[in-house]
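Issue 218. Parser rejects a valid record. Input:
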Amino acid sequence: MPTVTSQFLDKPIFRIVSEIAEEQGVRAYVIGGYVRDCFLGRPSNDIDIVVEGSGLEFARAVGAKTGKNVSYFKNFGTAMLRYHGDEIEFVGARKESYRRDSRKPIVENGTLEDDQLRRDFTINAMALSLRKEDFGELVDPFGGIRDLASGIIRTPLDPDTTYSDDPLRMLRAVRFAAKLSTPGMTFRIVPESIASMRRMSSRLEILSSERIADELCKMLVTLRPSIAFRLLDEGDLLGGILPEIAALKGVETVDGKGHKDNFEHTLAVVDNIRPENVAVQPDRDHLLWLRWAALLHDIGKPASKRFDRQAGWTFHGHDVIGARMVPRIFNRLRLSLDEMKYVAKLVRLHLRPIALVDDGVTDSAVRRLLFDAGDDIDDLMLLCNADITSKNEAKVARIRANFSLVQRKLEEVEEKDALRNFRNPIDGEYVMKVYGIPPGPVIGQLKEMVKEAILDGVIGNNFEEADRFMRSRAAELGLNEKV
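Output the parser choked on:
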C-alpha cells in the first residue's frame, strides 16, 4: 500500500533491497541522512541500508542481483556498492556500548530499535521501511520529523550519554546546525544539549586531530560558518580546539575608547566569502582554504593590541604575527601543509591592498603587491573586500569605491608588466657566464637590483632592459664582462 513517504523510494535499488529482504525473511530499512535529506528536499546519493541480520551477507546478495562489485569492511561490519550513481552502504542492525577512554564501541547484533537508539540525533534516526507489507512507512520513535520541521538538533538519548560515548557528536551537532540552516530557518541545538557540551567539553581530548579538523573543514564550507563557530563558543568547545579564535572575543575600553569585537568581526568576514564569488579550481577546495584564511586573518591582534591615548587602540604588525601563527595551527590540526603556505600568505598580505587605498595608488606599490601575491592576488582581493565590515554605510561605500580603483590599477599594471608570476629575466647562470665568476653573493646582489628596478618601474619586465641595467650596475661594482 503506498504511503506518504514512498515517493522518496522510487530508486530501483530500494525495490531490489525489498525483494531480497522478502527472500531472506529479514527486515530492511533505509535510515539516517538520506531520509532526513528527503524531507528537506535536498538531493542525496548516499544511502544507508540497515538490516536485521548480517549486513555483509545482505550486501553480497544485492551485489549478485545487480551485478555490481561489493566492497567489504569487515572490521566495521559494513559493505558498500555503487549503483546508478548512488553509494549504498549496508550494515546489520546493532547496539553499542562504550568504554570511557575510547570512541570505539563494543558492538552486538540488535534490532532496528537498538540501531536507532545508537544514532547521534533524532533527525538522523528516522527510517523508512523497505518491507513489502509496509513499504515506505516512516519509523520515527524520537520525533525526528517534528525536530526537523522545527529546526532542532537533539539527541535520542540523554545528551550526556550521547556525547560522553562519542564526543565527536558534539562537533557533528554544531556542523549539522550550520549545514542544515537556510536563509529562512536557522537550526539550533536544544539548551540541554548545549549545557551537556559544556560539561563534556574535556572529552574532546580523546579525539584525533584529524577528526576534529575534518569537522571544522565541513563547518567552514557551509552557507554561514558563523553559525557553527558561535555554537562552538556557546558550548565551551572553541577554546579547546581553536584557542586563537576564542582569544579574539571581547571589547576592551580605556578612556572611553573601545575597539570592535574581533571575534564577531572575524565571523562576519568568513561569512562574507561567498561561494559564488570564489573561482572553482579542480586541484583545490578553493572556498575551504579561502575561508580558513578569513578565519585566521586577525589572530595576531591579541598579541599586538596596544592602547595609545592619541590614536586609541592599535594592532600594528598583527598581519605578520598572525602569518607566523598559521603553521602552528595547521600542524596541530594535521591540516595540509601545502595549503598552510597559501593561508599564511593571505594572512600576511591582507592589509596590503587596504594600505594602497590609504596611501594612494602608485604603480610601484601595485607592482610589489602583484609580485608578492602572485596567482593568489584575486583571492587576496576577495579576502580584503570581505574584511570590510563597518556598520557605517558611508565608510563602507567609500572604501569599496577606493578598492575598485585599486582593482582597476592591478589590472592595468598586470596587463602592462606581467608581474603576477614574476620571474627575474636575469638568472644566476647568465650572470656567471657574462662575468666568468663562480657562485657567490654578488650574483644575488645583481639579481636583486634588477628585480627592484623592475618593481620600481625604472626598467620594463623584459630581458633586454634587464640585461642593460645589470651590466651598468655590474660595472659600478667593478666587474669585467667576459662575454
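Fixed in the parser; the record now loads. The chain has a mean pLDDT of 90.
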